[in-house]
Design goal:
By secondary structure, the protein is an alpha/beta fold. Helix content is 46%, strand content 13%. It has helices spanning 32-46, 67-73, 92-98, 108-121, 124-132, 157-160, 171-178, 190-196, 212-215, 239-244, 247-281, 291-316, 321-338, 345-355, and strands at residues 21-24, 54-57, 79-82, 135-142, 147-150, 164-166, 182-183, 201-204, 220-222, 230-238, 285-287.
């Protein structure tokens, strides 16, 4: 299926040095990565004289399916997207970033920018891992910030003690445990678990409120710094296709990826914010955490970050995990400051271009490992 709004994004009359490229992603047309991320990528690519024309197809493999990597690496198409943390053995640093979903703060564009810079510029091992699968990493993303949806108000440390909760797993399991809650270890549909009385809360995105079974039981949403899914590859290229492009065309693609990363992250958050507003208009109470809970969350996150750094060599085979983690947090802080004045996609994308994409050597990037 071709998403007509993006098909032939650069136009047949664009100045290109390659035929129309195919991008296949395993998301629906209303998914923020498509609706906002790839759309922004396409709109910017139209402005790039050297940019290749791109047709986007929405029939790609699911992002956590190995075929999302294999098909792209084989050169079945030029561009794709994948849930990189799902392939921890192949992409251990991306898996590590996903374990840092609570680290730094709740500025998810800063987190996506930090992840993109560290994977593209600061980590030869990361580039080698992508090269081994014959793909080129272009840009990451962070999804919508998580909230705690609950039957009863849960905005204090006392409310978390004994609270049975469903989480996305990983760091969020550990945070609930550190706050005194009980983790629902076997994943199931949140609506079913609420209906059966097996949970009193769920850490999830606000979009889960569209599930009638969740809405029937949830009365409160806690807006606390509960992190987000990080580490995904929103924009990936086939190494063979990337090599076929001229340096000018590669530069044009990277310029467009900056817009795409911003569009994707803000698209996720805009959808989440709209979901919360709609739910609040129909009776959902949005709670702020008490100062005591904020302090407890910060302490739990700090302890978890230290645990991730200490266990990464065994879990992911990453011996330089503490340095990688420290670099990620420094980059997060940098982008949180630089993006604080950005009010639109253009301004935010300019920050990403200046700090990341303009620094990528298009004569070498993605070609260093002899693909």
């Amino acid at each position: 299926m071709i998403l007509a709004a993006l098909a032939g994004a650069a136009g047949a009359d664009a100045a290109t040095d390659a035929p129309v490229a195919r991008a296949h992603v395993g998301y629906g047309a209303d998914h923020p990565l498509v609706q906002s991320g790839w759309r922004a990528f396409a709109e910017r690519l139209k402005q790039e004289q050297a940019g290749p024309a791109v047709d986007l197809f929405l029939n790609g493999p699911p992002p956590d399916d190995p075929a999302a990597i294999e098909n792209l690496g084989r050169g079945d198409y030029a561009f794709g997207a994948a849930a990189l943390p799902a392939f921890a053995q192949a992409f251990p640093y991306s898996a590590l970033i996903s374990e840092l979903g609570l680290a730094g703060g709740d500025n998810e564009l800063a987190a996506a920018a930090a992840a993109t810079e560290i994977l593209a510029l600061d980590c030869p091992g990361c580039r080698g891992a992508f090269a081994a699968k014959r793909i080129v990493f272009l840009g990451g993303y962070s999804a919508a910030r998580y909230v705690l949806l609950s039957r009863a108000r849960a905005n204090s440390p006392a409310a978390f003690r004994g609270l049975a909760a469903l989480t996305p797993g990983g760091a969020w399991d550990r945070i609930i445990a550190r706050l005194g809650g009980v983790v629902k270890e076997e994943y199931a549909d949140a609506g079913d678990l609420f209906a059966k009385g097996e949970i009193g809360a769920a850490i999830t995105t606000p979009m889960e409120l569209s599930n009638p079974d969740v809405w029937a039981h949830v009365r409160h949403a806690l807006a606390a710094p509960l992190g987000a899914y990080r580490g995904g590859g929103a924009f990936l290229a086939s190494a063979g296709y990337w090599r076929s492009l001229s340096p000018a065309a590669r530069r044009a693609v990277l310029n467009a990826v900056a817009d795409g990363v911003v569009g994707a992250v803000w698209g996720f958050q805009n959808m989440a914010d709209a979901s919360l507003r709609a739910a609040a208009a129909h009776g959902l109470t949005i709670d702020a955490p008490t100062p005591e809970l904020m302090e407890a969350i910060r302490a739990a996150v700090a302890a978890d970050v230290a645990l991730v750094a200490a266990t990464a060599p065994e879990r992911f085979g990453i011996v330089d995990a503490p340095a990688f983690l420290e670099r990620f947090l420094l980059l997060y802080e940098k982008f949180a400051v630089l993006l604080s004045e950005a009010r639109d996609v253009t301004a935010a994308a300019n920050v990403l271009r200046q700090e990341i994409f303009d620094r990528i050597d298009v004569a070498r990037y993605g070609l260093e490992f002899g693909q």
